[in-house]
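Hi W.,

Here's what went into the run:
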Amino acid sequence: MYNWDFLPVLSESGLLLAGFRNTLILTATALTGGLAVGLLLALARLSHRRLLSLPAGIVIEVFRTTPPLVQLFWFYFGLPIILSVEMTPFLAAALTFTIQSGAFFAEIFRAGIVSIEKGQWEAARVIGMTHSQLMRRIILPQAVKRMFPSMMERSIELMKTTTLVATVSYADLLYEANELAQKTFRPLEVYTVVALIYFISITFISFLAARLEGRFARSGEMTR
Amino acid sequence: MSYHWNFASVFDNWWALAIGVVGTLKLFVVCLVIGMSVGLIVGLGRRSSRRPVRWLSTAFVEFFRNTPVLVQILWFYYALPILVPIEVSPFLAAILGISLNSAAYSAEIFRGGIQSIEPGQWEAARALGMTWLQCMRRIILPQSIRRVIPSLTNRGVEIFKMSTLASVVAYVELLQQGKLIASLNFNPLEVYTVIAAIFLIILYPIVRVTYAVERRLARSD
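Here's what came out:
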């Protein structure tokens, strides 16, 4: 029978904590960027001008149907060759996950915007609002509430996807775990602890999301 | 911006990419079959009247959905062999990680599909004297699987994309072969562009079909 010994892991918990901090930083960066990119892509895709809707559609489909790890390698190893710039693991990861999650967010935004009843659009038009006014004042505020559950799901997916950066040596939680496992010769304890850290934090976020959804649902402004 | 793309150095190694495609497809098929079957069982388990079964299935789903799949693969690869006296190959580690992760997701899909069937269907089947198994197999599953086909296809596409993670434990699949070619020929830009294109060519038709099926189901319901 194997003797579990968490002591070597716990005595190096500072390393894991630093890794977790980097995971959160990367997730927050990609989430902020991804939401902005997603909204722009969605608006472009819904545009009547083909010059806007076609490229947006292509970006969305390409980033949704190729594996994120291939994208990350492309941005980390490939892009610097075209642009002849130095690429850091963080920059490559932030760029990849911003665009990748942006493509998924775009589809959520689009579904939300399309779900708003025609009457809302017509009424806003009749009052004399411009397209950007009616989008900002009427459509988006309603759409965002409906999109909330899918948005939260996607954000959690994003946090889990950030583990891929360990493969290009960005010091996130999983990367530090790999280091620690080699250093302590305790892979079982290290990977179990890391899995638990992810499990607890993601379960906590899901719990918060569910409570917020409940509040939205009570105020009758969200359809599920 | 005057970079000269040179795809010849990639296509000279087409056989290595072909081996990679075979490895990817093998992993995909195994994970798809195991993931969907275990998913169906766990999905049914979540609706069981026995509390331990329900509790275990829920714990399984929550655990595998709330941890990153890459952590799961690495756990199976490095940690599992310490607990049980078996040799875990990269292939086995990838199968365990990806299958169990997809099983948790498809369990939720199956559960949703089964729940969406009206109680009247159950009652009618029961009244005819069908056992639980008959009622499930003949009445409930055929109807609910039809409803969840778009979600299941999406899951299949996700599994295909996830197979690239097996390269982290050096299982020979498309991305792993790409890394090899790139490190021998110093052409990462072309290699990873080609690999992304291969995934796009394989998966995009499936995605389009899913869209079409989704629209048709939406109309017929």
